[in-house]
Amino acid sequence: MQNSNCPAEQGPALREKLEIGYRPRGPNGPEGNWKFRQKAAGYVALSSILVISVVILTIGISVSLLSISESQLSLAGKKKEETVDFVEGCVEDALLELNNSGSISSSLTLPEGICSVTIDSQSGSDWTFTVTGSVDNHTKSIQVSANRDSTVTVTSWKEVE
User: Fold this and answer.
1) What is the pLDDT at residue 39?
2) pLDDT by residue (tens digit) across 97-151?
3) Which entry of 14, 25, 87, 96 is 20 to 30 Å from 136 by CA?
4) Pairing of strands 113-123, 152-160
5) Which domain holds residue 150?
6) Is residue 16 part of a domain?
7) Does 45 reside within a domain?
8) 86 burial class (0-12, 13-18, 19+ CB within 10 angstroms)?
9) Torsion of CA 68, 85, 115, 160, to 10 degrees
10) Which DSSP state fits 151?
11) Tens-digit pLDDT profile for residues 58-84
């Protein structure tokens, strides 16, 4: 008896098994569990696509929310700077008024808006006053101490809460 490893010599039954698409016969007919395996593979693929989609969607939403938050913080910082610039302009107008007339009115009008001025103290030629202004609900106050002799000299300038 010959013991050969060559498929051609082992007969047509072995060639049939080696052909592409060979499905072993099982208790459920010639298809065996092949259809079940195809359906299971489809469920796995569908589940994988759903999980990957959820992960990508979550990452996308997170990036969008972070971007919106950063934009809001940037805008708030810009508005704060605009408010400080506006109030500093009011302080300069108040100092100019103090230099020209020797007094400061309780409100100052600039093209950007109106500032209120509060005289904290005035003793001889020493003045301390606070200027408050708002731009788009951002309010800032600056307290200034100045000496008015022949000209106005600022001795203190600080932002207050």
Assistant:
1) 66
2) 999 988 899 999 888 889 999 999 999 899 999 999 998 888 999 999 999 988 8
3) 96
4) unpaired
5) 87-160
6) no
7) no
8) buried
9) 80
10) S
11) 999 999 999 999 999 999 889 899 999
Q: Give a yes or no: residue 31 inside a domain.
A: no
Mean pLDDT over 20-37 rounds to 54
Encoded amino acid at 59, one letter: I
Tokens coding 92: 């300069």
Rounded-to-integer distance, Cα 53 and Cα 65, Å: 18
- What span, in angstroms and rounded, lies between the C-alpha atoms of 110 and 108? 7
Judge whether 155 and 147 are in contact, CB under 8 Å: yes
Cα separation values, 128 from 15, 17, 26, 118, 125, Å: 106, 102, 100, 9, 10
CB 105 within 8 A of CB 93: no
Distance CA 95, CA 104 (A): 8
d(CA 153, CA 159): 18
